Amino acid sequence: MRRKFLIILMMMLFGVCSVQAVDITLSTSGTIELGDIYDDVYVENDGTIVDMLGGQIGRLRLSDGSIFNMDGGNITGGIDAHESSYFDMSNGTIDVDSTMVLYGVGGSFSGGNVTANGLKTGVSSTVQIDGGILNFGTFDIYGDIMISGGSLGVSGIFSSHNNTIDIFSGQLTVYDIGFDEYSTMNIYGRDFIYDSVQKILTGYLVDDSYLSMGGVDQWEYEQFNLIPEPTTLLLFGLGGLFLRKRN
To answer: For the chain, does the N or the C end have fewer beta carbons within 10 angstroms?
Structure first.
């Protein structure tokens, strides 16, 4: 009886140890797969490429010229990318009670689900959003950003540098804008309407997705470049349609 109890106890302890998260540093290319559980993951060295196919990690920290490709799994603690690192997400889930920091050369989002307090980018960072369901508290944008797909909900976009924000398509809802006079925002679509009383800009993007952008002051609106979609541009060139900003 005692022997049986010891065997059961050892099995229970082994089960606990097998799922205990640990920190790991990856300085050469590798993968994170289903069943892998880590607390902090450090990815470093130029040329290091890590593919996350499954599993779970807490905080991801990228440095040097490393590349992290997320195609599955979960990140629950946060993301800090610095120097010349790059973060790419095509699938998986990010659910963090913190701000994602992409201070490296940038990143891209083409799929998956993201919930975070915000996204911060550096002066030399470029971020491209092509897909996914993304919900951020705020965008603190110092580099360039291109939005051409996905469903994106943002409490506020704050830009305070000589950068460019291009919005082509995707379901986009923004509740507040803090737009610097040195920044450029290009919005491609049609039927733009600006309500100067409510400070709301609405319209339809190139793919017919609805755009709603709140907290837009008159001077900010006047600095936006509202660019007709290609079909409308063709009609405009043929003299079949006259477009102007609506005030």
So the answer is: N
